[in-house]
Amino acid sequence: MNQEKPSQDNLTEIIEFVLLGFADMPHIQWLLFGLFLIIYIIILMSNGTIFLITKMDSALQSPVYFFLAKFSFLEICYVSATLPRMLINIGTQRRRISLVACATQMSFFLLFGGIECLLLAVMAYDRYVAICNPPDYPLVMNHRVCIQLVTGCWTTGIPLTIGHTYQIFSLPFCGSKLINHFLCDIPSILKLACGDTFVNEMLVYIVAVLFVMVPFLLILGSYSKIISIILKLPSATSQAKAFSTCSSHLMVVVLFFGSAIIAYLRPNTRHSEGTDKMLSLFYPILTPMFNPMIYSLRNKDVIMALRKLLCNSLH
Q: Which of 19, 238, 262, 301 could anchor a disulfide with 233, C-beta 3.0 to 4.6 Å?
């Protein structure tokens, strides 16, 4: 019986974990540190710049830029939930993380990721109203509605995220305390839990469906309507102009949801730790780095606002 079921002492002794991260690549630790530090600085500066110009420039005061500002701020929060800790672990080679710190990181990581999914769905709805119902756009997407939509995104995920994190960390942990990851992600923590984790794994799928699949399907619905309206426009020039107003958002959606869906809704396999690590690098770190580039390079108003900001700072 003692061999089959760990004693109560063994179940409660783990009060910290060890984030292995990239410990299997000891010869390139400082290269990784420099690379991730540069990525973090780029994300902070690029998203911060977009947030700044949407607040300062009078030409960027429409709902689409209101949502873009909130999205850029969210990207900074999202990446700050993982990258600083990763940089500390690589820089100091001290990979220990307390149970409380691990739970806190997971809750923020899940919260910001869930809000991003919802906010991308809201941004798709904004483009739907702008293209499919332009006369009523200023009335439907007034400032009050925009604030309510953003507030709804932020408040919807908080109770579910806290509850889900609490339930996972209420599980007994025994044996290994090594997390083969650079962050406290749900699959990695569940692998260290004792006993049956079937209910927790089912909850992961339910949360993923609610916060990933439902917003994704709403975005697909919005874009199916948008594309059908664009194809009915009389000239190729007007079609190209209409599509250019939503192409940046569509690229960000494909980038973020593609990697998130693969990471969380794919079948679990025994040798998937390396794949999990690479996918977890992609959507919370590389996507926030590319998003400002996508929005700035494909948007004339943003480019003009950036030029104005640069000219003002030089003079």
A: 238
Secondary structure (DSSP) of 196-239:
--HHHHHHHHHHHIIIIIHHHHHHHHHHHHHHHHHHTSSSHHHH
Tokens describing residue 260: 């998130």
Residue ranges of the chain whose pLDDT lies below 50? 1-12, 271
Question: Is the distance from CB of 76 to CB of 47 less than 8 angstroms?
Answer: yes
Whole-angstrom CA distances from 227 to 96, 223, 234, 243, 254 are 50, 6, 14, 8, 16
| Rounded CA separation 74/121 (Å) | 14
**How far apart (Å, rounded) are the C-alpha atoms in residues 117 and 256?**
8
Helix (H, G, I), strand (E, B) or coil at 19: strand
Q: Is the pTM of this model over 0.90?
A: no
**How far apart are the C-alpha atoms of 59 and 55, rounded to whole Å?**
10
- Give whole-number Cα distances, 24 to 20, 56, 263, in Å: 8, 46, 22
- Which residue reads 């109203």 in tokens? 129
